[in-house]
Structures are given as C-alpha cells and as structure tokens.
Amino acid sequence: MAKALVFLASGFEEIETVTIVDVLRRADVDVTVAGLAPNVIEGKHGMRIVPDKSIDDVSVEDFDAFVVPGGNPGYKNLRNDQRVINMVKKAFNSNKLVAAICAGPAVLSDAGILNGKACTIYPGMEDELRKGGGKPKQDMVVVDGNIITSRGPATALPFAIKLAEKMVGKQVAENVSKKTLANILRW
C-alpha cells in the first residue's frame, strides 16, 4: 500500500489539509498526519486536528510521498522547522514524491529542491520560488519530476487527485474523481 505523510503545523490551511488527507484515503493511500507537536493543532480558521503521529516519530524511509499544506502562519511554522526541511530534502534526494500547495512550495524552496523545476505557489509569492531556483508557472497544478505544486484552497481537489494519480495510478484517481464529482468541475 502506498504511504503518504502530510505535515501539520499550527496555522495550517484547513481546506487544503483535509482535502488532501480525504482524497488520498479514498484512493486507499495510507496517510499519516505528522504534527510538529504531538497534541491538537489548530488551523488558521480554528479547526483542530489531532495528528496521527509527531514528526519525531516518523522516518522518510517509511513513506512514498510527503505533502506540505499551506496556510499562514502554517507554512511559516513548517519552513522554520529544521526537521521538516531535512525530511523534504531527504525525501526528494531519495526520489520520493514531494508535494506542496498554496504557500507550502516556499518550504520546498527553502529546502533547496526547486532549482530548475517548474512549480507554482499562491499568487503574489512567486519570488519565494525564484529564490530557490524554481520556475514559476500560473497553472493550478504543476508536476515536474517528483515534485507536485499547486496554488491554494480552491485548487486543493485537483492537486489531491493528481497526487493520488501519481501514487496509485490514473484509474484509481479517476474513480475518486467520479465518486467525489470532481470530474464535473472545469479546472
């Protein structure tokens, strides 16, 4: 079974985080929500989530994909945590899938994995990508090698479905898309 780790920090964007976890679990991906703290973590808009594990209790070797949600100050809390930066670097260098949405791609930039890569980020934050050598695009979801990036809350569903496609295949992703009615949306 494919396994994904979703990072969780105080101030996370709820739509992005919950959509990613939900879509991947519908696709039969084993998802672990790893919190910077082991207890309840509050999102930007007051939603509280109990992480499955603390980031201190997970290892890069145990997962196929690593996902960085956005949200402010969530992404700042992730980018300022050396454990996250180290895991992102190690995952990328191990050819694992690394994905980020909204302001989350700034974390990938800080980890030094966007050099020469096509990527996207929340509108107005493109300089965050450029400083790490990324090539900003305006698409809702951008895939370049083992990196997937997306723009923000409204793009969470196509982002999560693309992530599912890369992890478990196009047919499974299409089935999830149909069951959630995402296939009728025009993106």
How would you sum up this structure in a few lines?
The protein is an alpha/beta fold and 187 residues long. It has 7 helices and 11 strands.
Structure explained in plain terms:
- The mean pLDDT is 97.
- The chain has seven helices and eleven strands.
- It has helices at residues 14-26, 74-79, 82-93, 105-110, 126-130, 156-168, 170-179; strands spanning 3-8, 30-35, 41-42, 48-49, 53-54, 65-68, 97-101, 118-119, 135-136, 141-144, 147-150.
- By secondary structure, it is α/β, with parallel strands linked by helices.
- It starts with a strand and ends in an 8-residue tail after the last helix.
- It has one domain (3-184): Class I glutamine amidotransferase (GATase) domain (Rossmann fold).
- The longest helix has 13 residues, at 14-26.
Task: Write the H/E string, N to C.
Answer: EHEEEEEHHEHEHEEEHH
- The low-confidence parts are none
The CATH topology label is: Rossmann fold
Would you identify the CATH architecture? 3-Layer(aba) Sandwich
Q: Largest sheet, described in full?
A: 7 strands, mixed
Write the layout of secondary structure elements.
Layout: E1 3-8, H1 14-26, E2 30-35, E3 41-42, E4 48-49, E5 53-54, E6 65-68, H2 74-79, H3 82-93, E7 97-101, H4 105-110, E8 118-119, H5 126-130, E9 135-136, E10 141-144, E11 147-150, H6 156-168, H7 170-179
Parallel strand pairs: 1-2, 1-6, 2-5, 6-7, 7-11, 8-9
Antiparallel strand pairs: 3-4, 10-11
Helix pairs in contact: 1-6, 6-7
Question: Which key phrases capture this entry?
Answer:
single chain; 187 residues; alpha/beta; Rossmann fold; 7-stranded mixed sheet; two-stranded antiparallel sheet; globular
